[in-house]
């Protein structure tokens, strides 16, 4: 099973920032695909929920130096 998770990402000011977040998310065990949109400040992550949780996705964004923001 693959699920899709969308989360806001704050603190990105240039394209290298979004590339960093994308790389950090892509490296996580259980991520199938990660893309980060600088303009909308959102990350879209296709992931295996048996392996990875949205909390861990948020933590990876934080560890990379950016600010995960739950979308309502
Ligand atoms: Mo761009 Mo982001 O010069 O931390 S990489 S601002």
Describe this protein with a few key phrases:
alpha+beta, binds dioxo(di-mu-sulfide)dimolybdenum
Give a brief rundown of this model:
By secondary structure, the protein is of the alpha+beta class.
What can you tell me about this protein's structure?
This protein has a 4-stranded antiparallel β-sheet with strand order 2-3-1-4. Strand 2 and strand 3 form a beta hairpin. The termini are far apart. The model has no long low-confidence stretch (mean pLDDT 98). It has helices at 15-27, 54-63; strands at 3-10, 31-37, 42-47, 67-69. The chain is α+β, with helices and mostly antiparallel strands. The site of dioxo(di-mu-sulfide)dimolybdenum has 4 residues, from helix 1.
Outline the secondary-structure elements.
Layout (H helix, E strand, L loop, with lengths): L2 E8 L4 H13 L3 E7 L4 E6 L6 H10 L3 E3 L3
Antiparallel strand pairs: 1-3, 1-4, 2-3
Number of DSSP strands?
4
- Tell me which ligands are bound: dioxo(di-mu-sulfide)dimolybdenum
Uncertain segments are: none
Shape: globular
- Give, in spatial order, the strands making up the sheet with the most strands: 2-3-1-4
Secondary structure category: alpha+beta
Helix coverage percent = 25-40%
- Number of continuous helical runs: 2
Q: Which series of helices and strands comes N to C?
A: EHEEHE
Question: How much of the sequence is in beta strands?
Answer: 25-35%
Mean pLDDT: 98
Largest sheet: 4 strands, antiparallel
Tell me the radius of gyration: 11 Å
* Terminal CA distance: 24 Å
């Amino acid at each position: 099973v693959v699920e899709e998770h969308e989360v806001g990402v704050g603190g990105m000011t240039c394209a290298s920032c979004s590339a960093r977040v994308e790389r950090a998310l892509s490296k996580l065990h259980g991520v199938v695909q990660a893309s980060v949109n600088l303009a909308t400040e959102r990350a879209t992550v296709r992931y295996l929920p048996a392996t990875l949780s949205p909390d861990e996705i948020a933590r990876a964004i934080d560890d990379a130096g950016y600010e995960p923001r739950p979308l309502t």
